[in-house]
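Researcher: Here's a chain I'd like modeled. Treat it as a single chain, no partners, no ligands.
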Amino acid sequence: MRRRYFVLRAFSLILRILGWIGVIVGLILFVVGLVELLRSSSDVGNMLIARDVLGGGIGLVITGLILVLYGELIEVFFDIEANTRRTAEAIARLAAPPQHPPS
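Model: Modeled as a single isolated chain. Structure tokens:
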């Protein structure tokens, strides 16, 4: 069977890839921000920068997970469509009158 909805499938894949990249980069930023926050307890300027990096990391992790969620949600819709099609075909086969060879 021909693959349908090529562009939407590609968009779903792009969303998931970008989402996981965002999660990884966000985790790295979170760790860097946390380390800098703990190291710069006396310097207010560095503490503010570390706090911003920490918050940005958390925000990026959340945004990345939302992107992954949307990409997976598109895949769920594809699965629902495929299951609906198979169910409709099975019901049509059951409802069709039996084919008897001519005598």
